[in-house]
Design brief:
two-stranded antiparallel ribbon; alpha/beta; 294 residues
Length: 294
């Protein structure tokens, strides 16, 4: 009981913080960076190891520069995510702009549903919120539930503020079958780590064997949906664009793993171009192929 009260108090505090203007929050972010990077040294070892394994051909000085830039952006991402609790539609439209929204009408005009792969790259939470403004058809965000139910419910309420439908990963197949006769636009984060018993496929991602979900490929073939990548680019502090990048037009005509490799390769290329915007503090490579061979 006391724990729940404490969590709800924390959520109310985040709500109050979200009312502060962006310029003030970025001042807070500058301080958060100093605390995370120099004092707490939050997952510095994890980030350094991930960067070294992903970019063995880059020198230590360059990797250290990426690391510092990553932590600076991580601090911005934290305050921007809090701001999403109360950000207005007008402000959101100004700060997260689509570059080619006509692609949605293009596929829907062909009576085709859309499945988008996204990554933990740039501000994926702000992009998820803006996703709700993209079309009037059913917008589905597939999410991996957090262990903390209170915060899980809060984040889902925030993500659904502008009309998106939140679907837990385990309910995705059932939901897609129920909506197969309707036009839907679904977004799935493609770079999450599967649980041990869910791992069926490894690919080479950022220079190392990586377990990936096959859900996007399976769903696209099931409902014959066009597969795109939901690309986010940072223009400047607090301002982004997102681009809908076509990957696969005819999913039922693809070979096994072709769709999976398409979105993994696109995300990999994006990270290599501007690596500071990916979630390097995530323990992405917990499982190795040899663990399953044994």
């Amino acid at each position: 009981m006391l724990r729940k009260v404490a969590l709800n108090t924390g959520i109310f505090f985040l709500y109050l913080v979200s009312l502060l203007p962006f310029w003030f929050l970025y001042g807070v972010a500058d301080m958060i960076f100093l605390v995370l990077y120099y004092l707490v040294r939050y997952r510095r070892g994890v980030v350094a190891t991930n960067l070294k394994n992903a970019f063995p051909d880059r020198g230590e000085a360059e990797r250290r520069k990426i690391e510092r830039r990553y932590y600076r952006y991580l601090a911005d991402l934290m305050v921007e995510t809090i701001k999403m609790i109360t950000v207005s539609e007008k402000s959101l439209r100004k700060r997260m702009k689509p570059t080619n929204p006509e692609l949605v009408a293009h596929y829907f005009g062909q009576n085709r549903s859309i499945i988008a792969a996204a990554g933990h790259y740039c501000n994926w939470e702000m992009a998820a919120l803006a996703f709700g403004l993209l079309t009037n058809e059913k917008r589905i965000i597939v999410y991996k539930p957090q262990t903390n139910e209170v915060f899980n419910d809060m984040f889902n309420r925030v993500r659904a503020r502008f009309g998106a439908i939140l679907v837990a990963m385990r309910q995705t197949l059932r939901t897609m079958i129920a909506l197969k006769n309707q036009l839907t636009f679904s977004v799935l984060v493609s770079d999450q780590t599967p649980n041990y018993h869910e791992i069926n496929y490894f690919t080479n991602f950022l220079n190392q064997p990586t377990a990936v979900f096959l859900g996007i490929e399976k769903l696209a073939k099931l409902i014959d949906a066009a597969v795109i990548f939901y690309r986010i680019d940072r223009v400047k502090r607090g301002y982004y664009t997102y681009t809908l990048v076509p990957l696969i037009e005819q999913p039922k005509q693809t070979a096994e793993y072709e769709i999976t490799e398409a979105h993994v390769r696109y995300l990999e290329k994006l990270i290599q171009e501007k690596p500071q915007y990916w979630l390097w503090s995530h323990r992405r490579w917990k499982y190795k192929p040899e663990d399953f061979n044994r």
